[in-house]
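Hi everyone,

Forwarding the result from last night's run.
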Amino acid sequence: MKLQTVSIFVNDQQRAVDFYTSRLGFEVTADIPMGEYRWLTIVDPARPDGTQISLEPKDHPAAKAFTDALVADGLPFCTFGVEDLQAEYDRLSGLGETFTQPPTPMGPVLTAVLDDTCGNLLQLAQWVGPDVAG
């Protein structure tokens, strides 16, 4: 058994696919019209058989309340691993993207929190080992 698909609830599917592909480097794996919305999935191009992310419309009241509460509390919805957090922070900041937390040591990882422009905060994390805090 493996994790096949996870959902990120977004308030605009087109803006989400633009952000996740052009800014974060994911590739579209499915884009199927489903009435008002689309079945829209993306994947890490280095792992095309890996877990897909469904950019799910945030039209259910529970999804909206949940994601709005996370953003209000400054909590990221999910975490994306990166090899060089400072380089990603600099690249994305240079493209005009907004971070609510700059690269910060958190035990054995460095983390930063990024606004995905679609109603979510995302954590970027780099494993650096036990020496990061000291």
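The mean pLDDT is 95.

Cheers,
N.
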